[in-house]
Amino acid sequence: MGESPGQYTTRWRMLKAQEYLQEGDYPVRYIARQVGYKSEPTFNRAFKQHFGESPGAFRKRLNQ
Question: Which secondary structure element, helix H or strand E, spans residue 38, and what is its range?
Answer without folding.
Answer: none
